[in-house]
Amino acid sequence: MSDYDSSSEPRRDLVGLDRAGLAEEMAEFGAEPFRVRQLWHWIYYRGATDFGDMTNLAKGFRERLAARYALGRPEVTSALASSDGTRKWLLRFADGQEVETVHIPEADRGTLCVSSQVGCTLNCTFCHTGTQRLVRNLTPGEIVGQVMLARDRLGDWSGGLAPQGAQQGAPEAAAAPKEGGRLITNVVMMGMGEPLYNFEAVRDALLIVADNEGIGISKRRITLSTSGVVPNIARAGAEIGVMLAISLHAVRDELRNELVPLNRKYPIKELLDACRNYPGLTNAKRITFEYVMLKGVNDSLADAKALVKLLKGIPAKINLIPFNPWPGSRYECSEWEQIEKFSEYVFSAGYSSPVRTPRGRDILAACGQLKSATEKLSARERMALRAMAMTD
Ligand code: SAH
Ligand code: SF4
Predict the structure, then answer these.
(1) Which ligand lies nearest the alpha carbon of 127?
(2) R_g of the chain, CA atoms, integer Å
(3) Number of neighbouring beta carbons within 10 Å of residue 31
(4) Which end of the chain has the lower number of beta carbons within 10 A, N or C?
């Protein structure tokens, strides 16, 4: 589909506009105010990509809209599907920049892992994204667009518009919703980038995703993961109100300074104080602490004990994530037995962790040698993703 109409005027993309933005745009366009709600419904509830499908709008109005506006999606440059159902899309935006979006299906949920930036300005030493130069922040439309594209490809829109994947013969269309449920029930901001360094765009996008007359994924099922941008944690609590995940990974400042260099600016104590002040925390609404298991680095029993002590008093969950190595990475994933010991301790202290769930064996296997040459996503990558996605 061309981005230009016959008069070569660039068409403005409506995807990514919030209610106020859409209302403003439509007022300028000369549409009656009640049209805003109808358009919102078509764009974000039904997933329309063609104004021609908007059958409750007059034909002339649809044509005028189509001449002036677009309902775009990022381009899929590669789609990988794994035997366990995990799907990874490489998406390209209009300027050629690319990010990843991953769908992780489980029996009781489907989690979409969404990117917030192209690359990342932070340089966590175990993270591949950290080796890439930040190219730019994503716009709200590019962030919401990842969720919308995934809904297209999975055939996961309400209201029965034909899944785009089916039209294009994409394999995703074969994924049947479980027991009539949705394929995307949860969103985690755990793809590329640091969401709290692209605050406004992430906020605006997540409020669109949570709108219950649109995409409708409740804030309880959206998790924002941060490496610890302390001043923006309070802002996220006040202005977004989604669930929070903290990439902790170490219990001592000395080690965390090395793994997550942002710790030099915002050390562990300040980070945990910000967590304690995060609004609405209860045992039913906890902060997830992510802890990547690095062999001989942060995986001792003493670390497990210190972790439990450190989190005392904070309604917390602990997600142990098997390290997913990448070419040139300086770490190894912890031994299976060590992850079991670590998780055993954490479990006995009252924290469940993904490696203790029925999928835990699979997750632990990720640290073994179960990589199959025929898998397009390595077992380790899939399991690291699975562990990250277990946020509720
Ligand atoms: N920038 C944010 C969100 C994106 S990273 C953050 O750092 O929280 C999402 C999670 O993946 C973080 O917990 C991050 O520490 C973890 N992660 C990054 N690289 C990893 C790897 N190679 N193996 C396992 N987990 C990794
Ligand atoms: Fe990677 Fe997150 Fe660290 Fe950025 S902040 S380098 S995305 S782990």
Answers:
(1) 1
(2) 22
(3) 19
(4) N
Map tokens 């030099």 to a residue: 264
- CA gap 227, 262 in Å, rounded: 7
CA distance linking residue 5 with residue 67, whole number of Å: 6
Residues designated as active site: 100, 367
Cβ distance 388 to 379 under 8 Å?
Answer: no
Q: Measuring CA to CA, which residue among 172, 185, 221, 165 is closest to residue 106?
A: 185
Tokens, residue 372: 């199959």
**Which helix (H) or strand (E) segment is 245 a member of?**
strand 243-247
Verify whether ligand 2 is closer than 6 Å to residue 124 (CB atom). Answer: yes
- The amino acid present at 66, given as its one-letter code, is A
Residue range 93-119, pLDDT digits in tens: 999 999 999 998 888 889 999 999 999
Interatomic CA distance for residues 213 and 19, integer angstroms: 11
Residue that has been written with the tokens 């021609």 in this structure: 52
Q: Is 288 in the pocket of ligand 1 (CB under 6 A)?
A: no
Question: Tell me: the pLDDT tens digits for 289-324?
Answer: 999 999 999 999 999 999 999 999 999 999 999 898
